[in-house]
Design goal:
The complex is a heterodimer.
Chain A (H helix, E strand, L loop, with lengths): L1 H13 L1 H21 L7 H4 L1 E7 L6 H12 L3 E7 L6 E8 L4 H11 L8 E6 L2 H29 L2 H25 L5 H27 L5 H29 L3 H36 L1
Antiparallel strand pairs in A: 1-3, 1-4, 2-3
Helix pairs in contact in A: 2-7, 6-7, 7-8, 7-10, 8-9, 8-10, 9-10
Chain B lengths: L1 H8 L2 H17 L8 E6 L4 H4 L7 E5 L2 E2 L3 H9 L6 E6 L3 E5 L6 E5 L6 E2 L1 H4 L1 E8 L4 H18 L4 E8 L4 E8 L4 H8 L4 E5 L2 E5 L4 E4 L6 E2 L6 E4 L2 E12 L1 H12 L3 E2 L2 E2 L3 E5 L2 E6 L12 E10 L2 H21 L6 E9 L7 H24 L2 H24 L3 E2 L1 H30 L4 H29 L2 H36 L1
Parallel strand pairs in B: 7-23
Antiparallel strand pairs in B: 1-2, 1-6, 2-3, 2-4, 4-5, 8-10, 8-22, 9-10, 11-12, 11-19, 13-16, 14-16, 15-16, 16-21, 17-18, 19-20
Helix pairs in contact in B: 2-11, 2-14, 6-9, 10-11, 10-12, 11-12, 11-14, 12-13, 12-14, 13-14
Classes of the chains: A alpha+beta, B alpha+beta.
């Protein structure tokens, strides 16, 4: 039981870890914001870019072409096949691209679909106004969601500090995940936002287990309550992480891989935020109350 | 073991789960033998549409060549020349149509179930519009209106963006899921300026003058008795629906009608309905309405087709379109359709199947971890069963409400199943803890469900604003998550608790 006793001696000091990490994460995101105007890099689905349409009837393998273009242009390219309503035959391809090297894109994409004549290509810039609006709406929705969750937590536990502890740990978890994503070069997409929201849900879940056990299972000593919650919570997190790892390996789609990767990062961070930070907050709170 | 199994199967909560599973199966209605192609779009005014080809017909052959795959279809079409007469055989008719720069209809594989897939999974139609303005804020207003129109019409799965080419011309790019009918294109590209006039004077217009449009069966639809009838070798039907207009428009109507004469029980002028300056219908005004500050009107319109059924469908489609235009009003500018293409899916054909398979595998992995932790198959097997049931029921629900399953929905399924597993672990631990401390079953379950309910309400609190404020992708995610978690809390988790109860009692 070496682990348990060293935790007993050091649980307060351990809380430096999550706080330190939060500060580190805020520095990274703040630095991104200062450099690019966005605290995390958005992918093509959230920022707009160029739309190149090329007439062609050459069949190509879309996913390998996307990979090839993505590698040579160093920027994600999304390809869609266009076919005619009248005959069903392929009439062209559209390429969505968030980078700057348009000439290169036209050359490479043209070679790929065997149409190099620029007269049979058209290029447009997708305005960012709509994606901007989507992004702002999303941020607003998430803030409202966090507000609503705080109200529910407060009504459920009827105590300010424990309810606040849950929300703080949930929010720090998201901030931390954004920072790790940014360090790993993962840009945020519309589906990435879904993953972040899922993460918020998971993190609140494990915190509720902790808080409910710590506040309500009064027949046990405080540290025993926390250990019982840790046991349940760890089972929850490990199960989720293993399941997501399987999902990461088993899914063929890049997008599902990104979602599971974001969730794995977040769940790992959640271990720290729930079981060190929030458990610490609860302990201090309950010890002070006697 | 047999006794326990019977006890589980016959308990109320498990019976509920089983019946919901059966309902889901019926809603999804898998058709494993589906083979062949069906018509999914017919061009308006094409030779194909004039000769009676309709959406949902199953294609058998072209010029006697049996067509079973998309490649066959494409290959065959490449051999046709303009002006050639082609014999098309479908499950319901044999038609001869003229090939004119295209065959006039397109086909898709016959769906294997009632599950509808979103634009990112199956592709759809991309319409590029050229608006008659260069002001970006006005274009954004138009995008809002088009989006609203499509939503009112019942198309939820769409993406609209605006773009600019190098010469500075503005475009609006609209993408709509699946096999969209031509009506949808109409809604996107029509300015939709609706006016009801008496003589030269406007009584009311679409949008701001309309207080409400009836879309329920009591005050809209096709009259059963006299709604449809044959005209020549065609059928035609009349639809009707009631609209309530604003007070000012009603007063305008009163002033305008009070000046008219009465002829044979009707007023001398008719109420003319114009759509984009084109007269679409003229309605008699009965003498009783003269000078009346009436706020309710009945709008009527026709539909036609080769059979009664086709005419009925045509009339109902026109009605829905008219209702939509009346509710949303006209676009501030006219638009031109630059091009219309069928676009492929962003995520590839087998994304849906492969991601579902991946989720199922992940659920089995959960079962594995649970087995390692508790060393009991009697805990991990019920968890696997519960997880799989949740996925299946969510899909069933999506099929029932005709929700298009897209990437966001799949993420939602993942979220729901994930929190489901969390909750089951909470139940399991409370049960095992209670066993140590001799708590009664009810007490243990109460403890567990208190935590589960708190998590559930918090989830709802987060998802409801997301559903109402969030756009596109997030709406689908929030919906699936809400549905999934609700099913979990009220159906699958109680059943899991029951299974656990019976299996644990046996051990105790």
């Amino acid at each position: 039981m070496g682990l348990k006793s060293s935790y007993e001696r050091n649980w307060k000091r351990l809380m430096i870890l999550p706080v330190g990490f939060l500060i580190f994460a805020l520095i990274i995101l703040g630095n991104n914001y200062a450099a690019t105007g966005d605290f995390i890099e958005k992918d093509i689905s959230l920022k707009g870019g160029f739309l190149l349409t090329i007439e062609s009837s050459t069949p190509i393998d879309i996913s390998s072409a996307e990979e090839e273009l993505g590698n040579s242009l160093n920027e994600q390219v999304k390809i869609r096949e266009l076919s005619s309503i009248g005959s069903g035959g392929i009439v062209g391809y559209s390429f969505e691209y968030a980078g700057e090297s348009i000439d290169e894109l036209m050359d490479e994409a043209g070679t790929l679909v065997e149409t190099t004549n620029r007269d049979r290509m058209s290029i447009e810039e997708i305005s960012s106004a709509i994606s901007e609006r989507f992004w702002n709406g999303t941020i607003r929705a998430i803030l409202v969601a966090i507000g609503a969750m705080s109200v529910v937590m407060f009504l459920y536990f009827r105590k300010v500090v424990p309810a606040l502890g849950i929300i703080v740990s949930g929010v720090s978890n998201i901030v931390g995940t954004f920072a790790v994503m940014s360090l790993m070069g993962i840009s945020i997409s519309a589906s990435g936002i879904a993953a972040i929201l899922m993460l918020l849900g998971y993190s609140i879940d494990s915190n509720i287990v902790l808080t409910a056990r710590a506040l309500k299972r009064k027949e046990l000593a405080l540290n025993e309550r926390i250990y019982s919650a840790i046991k349940t919570g760890l089972t929850m997190s490990i199960t989720s992480i293993v399941a997501l790892f399987v999902l990461y390996l088993a899914s063929t789609a890049a997008i599902l891989k990104t979602i599971s990767l974001i969730l794995i990062i977040g769940l790992l961070l959640d271990l720290m935020y729930t079981w060190i930070q929030n458990a610490g907050i609860l302990r201090m709170y309950l010890e002070r109350k006697g | 073991m047999k006794k326990e199994l019977m006890k589980i199967l016959l308990s109320g909560r498990v019976l509920i789960l089983i019946s919901v599973l059966i309902m889901s199966l019926l809603a999804i209605a898998p058709n494993l033998n589906a083979e062949g192609l069906e018509i999914n779009r017919v061009e308006i005014d094409s030779s194909a549409s004039v000769n009676g080809l309709e959406v949902d017909m199953i294609l058998y052959s072209l010029n006697g060549v049996v067509i079973t795959e998309l490649d066959d279809f494409r290959k065959e079409i490449n051999t046709f020349r303009n002006g050639e007469i082609i014999e098309v055989v479908t499950d319901s008719r044999r038609s001869s149509i003229v090939y004119d720069n295209g065959i006039g209809f397109s086909v898709g594989e016959i769906p294997t179930s009632n599950l509808k897939k979103g634009i990112d999974l199956v592709g759809g139609v991309r319409v590029v519009l050229k608006p008659d303005t260069t002001d970006e804020s006005q274009i954004l207003d138009m995008i809002d209106l088009i989006e609203q129109r499509l939503n009112v019409f019942g198309v939820a799965d769409l993406s609209i963006r605006n773009s600019k080419d190098l010469e500075g011309t503005n475009y609006i790019i609209t993408e709509i899921a699946g096999a969209s009918k031509e009506e949808v294109l109409d809604l996107v590209s029509k300015q939709g300026k609706f006016e009801a006039k008496i003589g030269q004077d406007v009584v009311f217009t679409g949008g701001k003058d309309i207080r409400s449009v009836c879309r329920s069966g009591e005050c809209s639809g096709i009259p059963l008795q006299q709604g449809c009838g044959p005209t020549g070798d065609e059928w035609s039907c009349q639809y009707f629906f009631r609209v309530d207009i604003s007070r000012e428009s009603a007063e305008r109507h009163a002033t305008l009608t009070s000046e008219l004469d009465v002829v044979n029980g009707y007023l001398s002028e008719k109420l003319d309905l114009y759509l984009d300056d084109e007269l679409v219908n003229s309605l008699f005004i009965s003498e009783g309405l003269q000078g009346d500050v009436s706020t309710s009107f009945t709008i009527q319109g026709p539909g036609s087709g080769l059979t009664e059924e086709a005419a009925l469908r045509d009339a109902l489609d026109s009605m829905k379109k008219m209702q939509t235009l009346l509710i949303t009003g006209s676009l501030p500018f006219s638009v031109e359709v630059e091009r219309v293409d069928v676009i492929s899916a962003t995520l590839g054909d087998n994304f849906f199947t492969s991601s579902l398979l991946a989720i199922v595998l992940a659920i089995f992995a959960v079962g594995g971890v649970i087995f390692v932790r508790y060393r009991k198959a009697s805990i991990s097997i019920p968890i696997i069963i519960t997880g799989l049931s949740e996925v299946f029921i969510i899909l069933g629900f999506a099929a029932m409400i005709r929700h298009n399953i897209d990437l966001a929905s799949i993420a939602g399924i993942l979220a729901a199943v994930g929190t489901g597993v969390d909750d089951q672990i909470v139940i399991t631990d409370e049960v095992l803890y209670g066993r140590k401390s001799d708590e009664k079953w009810m007490k243990r379950m109460k403890n567990a469900f208190l935590i589960i309910f708190a998590a559930y309400i918090t989830m709802l609190a987060a998802m409801i604003p997301l559903f109402s404020l969030g756009a596109g992708v997030l709406k689908g995610f929030a919906l699936t998550t809400i549905v999934g978690v609700t099913i979990g809390v009220f159906i699958t988790r109680p059943a899991y608790a029951k299974m656990l109860e019976v299996l644990m009692e046996k051990e105790e």
